[in-house]
Structures are given as structure tokens and as C-alpha cells.
Amino acid sequence: MQRCGWCVGDTLYEDYHDNEWGVPVYDDATIFEFLILETFQAGLSWITILRKRENFRKAFDNFDYKKIAKYNTSKYDSLLLDEGIIRNKLKIKATISNAQNFIKIQEEHGSFSKYIWSFVDGKPIQNKVENYKEAPANTAISDALSKDLKKRGFKFVGSTVMYAHMQATGMVNDHEVNCFRYNQVKSP
Questions:
Q1: Who has the most CB within 10 Å: 62, 65, 105, 151?
Q2: Inter-helix orientation angle 73-80/89-109, to 10°
Q3: Topology of domain 5-185, CATH
Q4: Counting runs of H as helices and runs of E as strands, what totals does the chain give?
Q5: Which residues are catalytic?
């Protein structure tokens, strides 16, 4: 079975690649989970975040954005002491304010999913990546998404972070064309 080169050799990476990466996600809760994880990944490797994913899930109330939006100073302080997550003050604060802004976008657009998928006209972009090293780090679409999110008060949502989010949530299919998942996640 041929997989994208970036995941080969690590069972956690391979499982994530085989079952999640690049699969279109339209559920707000899952989109928010990936937004949190991508926020914390900024400047770090994705495998580091995957290894701590369950710790993040526990620390951040199962990624429940409604609860996270209401976190107080006491909860913030307890997160700073949680050795199971990335204890970055700015990223933790950003997660709380991003949850608040996430809800505002839901209220404005009916769902965050409708908002974010509007950047790709509601359907995944089908790239033809031969080698994962050739995939872009950002695009004009991720630039526009990043700019709009920042305008709405989001933090740690640079264009590269947002492109990684688009890849993870299937807004773009960047599986290598020879990868067994490329056609499985390809939209008609």
C-alpha cells in the first residue's frame, strides 16, 4: 500500500494519514478541534501535536468551543500547569479568544463550516501532488482565509497554519497522486 511520503514509518502518523488527513470535514466541532491543534502546532512538528492530542482533548474539555469560550483565569492558570499539552501562554489565550470568535462566525454564517468552506466554493480543491515536498506551504486562498480570520480577531492563524488546516480538513486534497488515499478522498 503506497502512502504519502511524509507519514511513512510512524504508526501514529500512518493511522492519522489513512483515516483523517484530507477527508472533507463539515462538522463545526471537528473543524474547531483541528483549528486548536493547528494553532498549537505553529512552530512545531505535527507529530508532536498528534502525540499530545488526547492530552489536549482532556485539557480542553473535548475541544468543546462553547466551554472553552467561557474559560476564566483559573482555568487558564491550570492549563499553564498541564504538562500534557504545549504550555504556551499566547497559544492558550488564543485558543480561548478563538473559541469566542468561532461562535461569532457561527452566529453570522449559520455555521463555521459554511464560512470556511465558502473560501473554496464548498468543495475540495483537487491538487495533483507527485511528491509531498512539492505541495505548497500556502496559497492565495489560505492567504485570504488567514487575513479574514485575523480581521475577526483570531490569533495564530497565519497563511501556512491555515493551509495546513485546509489540508487536514479536506478543503484541499494534497495526497500524493500515487497514494492509495488520493482517489478515496477525491471529490467527484
A1: 65
A2: 130
A3: Endonuclease III; domain 1 (1.10.340)
A4: 10, 2
A5: 16, 38, 46
Cell digits for 63?
475541544
Tell the burial category of 165 from Cβ atoms under 10 Å away from its Cβ (0-12, 13-18, 19+): buried
Rounded Cα gap, residues 105 and 28, in angstroms: 11
Q: Point out the annotated binding site for Zn(2+).
A: 4, 17, 175, 179
Tell me which residue of 91, 140, 106, 134 sits closest to 120, measured CA to CA.
140
- Record the pTM: 0.95
Q: How far apart are CA 114 and CA 31, in angstroms?
A: 11
Q: How far apart are CA 174 and CA 134, in angstroms?
A: 10
Residues 6+ apart with CB under 8 A from 31: 25, 112, 113, 116, 169
**pLDDT tens readout for residues 50-75:** 999 999 999 999 999 999 999 999 99
